[in-house]
Amino acid sequence: MIERLKLAVAIGAVVASMAAAPAGAQDAGAELERVAAQFRAQYPATRFTSVKKSEIAGLYEVVMGDSVAYTDAGGRFFVFGHLFDMQAQIDLTAQRKSEGRRVEFPAEALANAIKTVKGDGSRAFAVFSDPDCGYCKKLEGELAQLDNVTIYTFLFPLDSIHPEAKTKAVAVWCAADRQAAWTRAVLTGTVEKLVACNNPVNDNLVLGTKLGVTGTPTLIAADGRVMPGAAPAARIDQWLNAGAAKVAK
User: Fold this and answer.
1) Number of domains in the chain
2) Is 29 helix (H, G, I), strand (E, B) or coil?
């Protein structure tokens, strides 16, 4: 009963302070800092690297090293697991975990990727993608909405779950128009007639493994930031812009 009373008081204090605070990003930031300070006081042995409101009303996302959890305003109940946006088909927790991770952009292997330039092509990034991956199909629709980008698509078939993906990837690479063949394969499932040629599919599998790619699609920005999953175009656009100033042109 005492613990419940403490939780009710803590939640009441947070709600009251939110109601009293005027609208604005500065006040929202101050409120989050108060909540973060509360969590740190409750758990002095835990290093909270980030505290922010989650996509679910009433829950806060807290990052503790490599761990991501979700908690109430009182900081008593913690949920460990993955939060999914089922409408957008995004693993929000996986994306959050990857935000701080950086890898080496595969600049030396770009000849092994399908290059697509849109607009002035100023924002370059790599995509590891599988022709039989449903999320990759969704991502292609989002990428089509971007402008001023250079996209390097590395064919990365996950044949352990998509037995025909590797054959399709080779067929795409060996097609006369790789970019068009890739678009047809991933969006419609239509694959070119397989023609043997030297292809980098096996090399891409090795490269992706070295870079820590464990699923498709996985995006890697020119500055090494990683974004897993099929994010909406607006989010990818923001993600690219966030690193634009740090990348030498």
Assistant:
1) 2
2) helix
Closest CA to 204 of 131, 158, 154: 154
pLDDT in tens, 116-163: 999 999 999 999 999 999 999 999 999 999 999 999 999 999 999 999
Question: Is residue 92, in this structure, part of any structural domain at all?
Answer: no
* Pairing of the two strands 67-71 and 60-64: antiparallel
Average pLDDT along the chain: 83
* Percentage above 70 pLDDT, the chain: 82
Same domain? 75 vs 124: no
The arrangement of strands across the sheet holding 218-221 comes to 114-118, 149-155, 123-129, 218-221, 226-228
Is the bond preceding 200 in cis, omega lying within 30 degrees of 0? no
CATH code for the domain of 6: 3.10.450
Encoded tokens for 211: 């870079």
Please give the residue that has the higher pLDDT: either 79 or 139.
139
CA distance 139 to 116: 14
